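tokens incoming
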């Protein structure tokens, strides 16, 4: 079942590759601040690279509003690290290799590019904004992997959350 606006966001424990090694990241680690979760289908693909590079370039806008931005895909943390280094992606990338989190958020394809790739369990391009108390305030799950989330609307929600906490 997909998460719903106004309901608690499912917590998770996902792996991330850093210079120091593999670390586990929990959504709970970010309690007290706004979080933007961006699920993306696959590292090393054009639209995903465009999305994560754009968000990396705009990260300071989110940070100035008190928001953390996390990218999530079903790629391994090692593939994510190589892709991030190759493309200058600076936001934290989390591996949902076991596909548990994308399913919990209702952001998982049953069949990705049917008849061409036929990959099962690939994350749908999706965006969620979670407030400081862990409540989902924005949810956008896209069926078309070539489309990008509505970043203007995401920033508006993040700005509204900052204003209500001041």
């Amino acid at each position: 079942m997909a998460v719903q606006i106004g309901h608690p966001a499912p917590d998770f424990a996902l792996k991330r590759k850093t210079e120091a090694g593999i670390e586990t990241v929990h959504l709970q680690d970010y309690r007290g601040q706004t979080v933007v979760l961006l699920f993306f289908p696959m590292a090393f693909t054009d639209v995903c690279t465009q999305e994560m590079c754009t968000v990396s370039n705009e990260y300071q806008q989110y940070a100035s509003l008190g928001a953390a931005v996390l990218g999530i895909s079903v790629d391994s943390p090692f593939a994510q690290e190589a892709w991030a280094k190759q493309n200058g992606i600076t936001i934290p990338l989390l591996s949902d290799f076991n596909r548990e989190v994308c399913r919990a958020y209702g952001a998982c394809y049953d069949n990705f590019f049917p008849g061409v790739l036929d990959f099962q369990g690939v994350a749908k391009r999706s965006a969620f904004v979670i407030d400081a108390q862990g409540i989902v305030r924005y949810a956008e799950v896209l069926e078309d992997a070539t489309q990008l989330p509505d970043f203007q609307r995401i920033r508006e929600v993040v700005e509204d959350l900052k204003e209500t906490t001041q």
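note: The chain is about 30% helix and 25% strand.
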